[in-house]
Amino acid sequence: MYKSFKEMPVWNEAMEMAETIFRLSDILPKKEDYGLTSQLRRSALSVSGNIAEAFGRYHISDKINFYYFSRGSLAETMSHLEYGTRVGYFKPQDVESIHSMLETLYESINRLIKSLKVKYKTGVKSKSQS
Q: Whole-angstrom Cα distance, residue 119 to residue 60?
């Protein structure tokens, strides 16, 4: 059982991804500060934020919902990266390395959801363990 969300491997993966996205988005033009730059950074950071929020929830159904939100933010981040690549802001090779990180994180979140669904169906009480 984790004592803090900071101990969770999935949260650490999400933070690493957000840091990588932050550095990548630094190359975006100033005209995108309130557009793509903001959207990309917000969605990337939302992944770890929702994992932390899930950790703080007591009921398994609440935890599952926040992991779904986290997964949704991850998909949004993928979409923003695709757009940035299509309009020529990002080099495909730079996004490809991040994409594999995102896919791994997506799988990790899916495993958490699946595990919690099993607990939910069996009626196991939750403590902030995942």
A: 8
End-to-end CA distance of the chain: 7
Write down the pTM of the prediction: 0.89
The single-letter code of the amino acid at 27 is I
3-state SS string for 73-129: HHHHHHHHHHHHHHCCCCCHHHHHHHHHHHHHHHHHHHHHHHHHHHHHHHCCCCCCC
Helices (H) and strands (E) in the chain, counts: 4, 0
Domains defined along the chain, listed by start? 5-122 (1.20.1440.60)
Q: Among 5, 108, 104, which residue's Cα sits nearest to residue 50? A: 5
pLDDT band at 124 (very low <50, low <70, confident <90, very high): low
HSE-up of 101 (CA within 13 Å, CB side)?
20
